[in-house]
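Figure 6 in text form: structure in, sequence out.
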């Protein structure tokens, strides 16, 4: 059985996507505006980001930081940066809307969600991302690209 070429990167990527969406929703609601290109004081590349002191990282837009961290990965060219931010914004708006829509279920019976608001939010987040097909490719079983119709030793 052959693993996907980037199998070790799937779990960290999934974690980053979930964090980006969760925090992008918080960022969006706290700034009351859409995700946007960096402000003048924010880094514009991964190399610039790596020079930012740790104490200043908390002041930067988490979605923008994650996009910068993807620099150099396949499909992360500057021409798709705007599309990536638009996708993150669309996901965060949809998930925020769905969370608000189903919040009554948590209020009615918190025990259904182990009395944990975080559990409710993560569960809803995962379900909505799956609906949006944002994580379905990551959860699909690996397909072997190796042909098994050959004979060894001939």
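Output sequence:
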């Amino acid at each position: 059985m052959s693993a996907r070429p980037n199998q070790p990167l799937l779990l960290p990527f999934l974690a980053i996507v979930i964090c980006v969406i969760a925090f992008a929703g918080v960022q969006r609601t706290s700034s009351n505006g859409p995700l946007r290109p960096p402000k003048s004081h924010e880094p514009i590349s991964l190399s610039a980001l790596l020079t930012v002191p740790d104490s200043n990282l908390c002041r930067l837009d988490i979605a923008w930081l994650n996009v910068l961290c993807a620099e150099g990965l396949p499909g992360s060219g500057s021409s798709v940066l705007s599309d990536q931010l638009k996708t993150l914004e669309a996901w965060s708006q949809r998930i925020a809307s769905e969370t608000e829509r189903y919040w009554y279920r948590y209020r009615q019976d918190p025990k259904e969600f182990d009395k944990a608001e975080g559990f409710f939010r993560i569960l809803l987040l995962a379900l909505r991302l799956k609906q949006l097909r944002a994580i379905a490719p990551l959860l699909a079983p690996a397909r072997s690209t190796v042909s098994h119709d050959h004979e060894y030793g001939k």
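Caption detail: The chain is about 60% helix and 0% strand.
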